[in-house]
């Protein structure tokens, strides 16, 4: 049997003392036979870290449909070829919502590993090979063997889950098929969607008992899977299965495989929300039992002056960018390397280096408008907020001095907003604490009209809004550029709270317990509770009291709290709401103009193209030719 596996990707241990964290940062490119890969515990561990390598690659936001196809961030268009600047150099995923997806050569192809996608079938095969051979090392303790098997099962489950979210009903790869297997064995069929979800959940359940409750040695093992992580993923998997995209979606009711089986459930099953709710509570309990708690800002730089207002913003921002803090239930080792894409030029130093700051991650105007007013309700519902005149101009005042530069002209819509707006989004006139200046009495500010942050060819922001949340305040651009790196969080505690609230509302509708979980998130942001905010300030005062109304509130709360974290694109898909979000044009300010009157004109950047078929990704047509047992993703035929 060993001769059937002569060429397999393996991560080889360079030295025994090298930490697990270092292994998890390296994609294996070595080759070995099974005899050497499982000859002893060290070699087997190296193979396990090879199984982890695809997981680490998923932390690159450019590969994540939840980030690039969410319309939270868009990329400038190259007018010469009507593609985003950068082309296939890592930014092609932004082209999906511009109508450039296709079945001949799919963007973000995770089936075959092209166009910023990864070949997750290969990753799954590697996990299966590990599981089938981990009995071979004789010097491996029972404890190690149990833990490593559990890690491999988790990884295999998660890779299947990622494929399900992208393609819907998929084949299940539970064993590594021999390379000389007959064609009928290789030409696998898709399983029904519910069977796919059940398989993932079963693998997670099998993995949990053998995983450590928490990582004890962060220096050596940060990034490895724990039982708390597995429970959090299970909760998300079950909530995804219960959501409208996959739970009795009428758009998929007639999709059948080559044998005539319905691949998708034809009717919604409310009990799926109950199972998801139970899993959410179990995940929350597991996380908090290991010390998970909301983050508070911890000073790790030379702070000259910082007001309470600035400290609150840095707490909200730091929950995401301050690596390995207690709020981060699941964090991956690879560091975020795109701060220069999310940063405006706020100083002469930043403007002096042509390659220091690109600013290309552009936040659409519509995304900025999902954030609440300072009363904690949507801007179009707040009866005290001037929604009609939000595009008019207003000068910065003393009340907003730690958010907007005093006496600087900015859009009226930037005033009287919630703290998460100011911690997540930078705009013309907004203060920028950091970049070498940590005195918020004299902080840098964004001058997008006629200053350092204004239009520069090939290095420009196309909307006039930046994803500030993605940049650590210790990052500084200029003559001595330093980008403060951070590990990418895949899940934070508030995400679990809001997911639990969503499931509870779907099961029983509004109630005290549902409000409690939402209000914990809102309280940290300095907002009143849901009931108080809607009762006092909303034009739709009873919205929170109905299941449909509270659903809208929870969905918007998740989009705000998890903005720019690579989650919104997945959520909007499973809710079947992305088509509505992308119905109108991507808009921003007229970034090429260098006068206030010229800049503050709403500009249509481009019109997204997103139809029913775009909720799932196409399988490459070539794969359908080589495996006639497969059926194409719905509406891509």
TrEMBL record:
Keywords: Cell outer membrane, Membrane, Signal
Main location: membrane
Source superkingdom: Bacteria
Domain SusD-like N-terminal: 107-217
Ranges for domain RagB/SusD: 337-636
Any Gene Ontology CC annotation: cell outer membrane
Protein name: Starch-binding protein
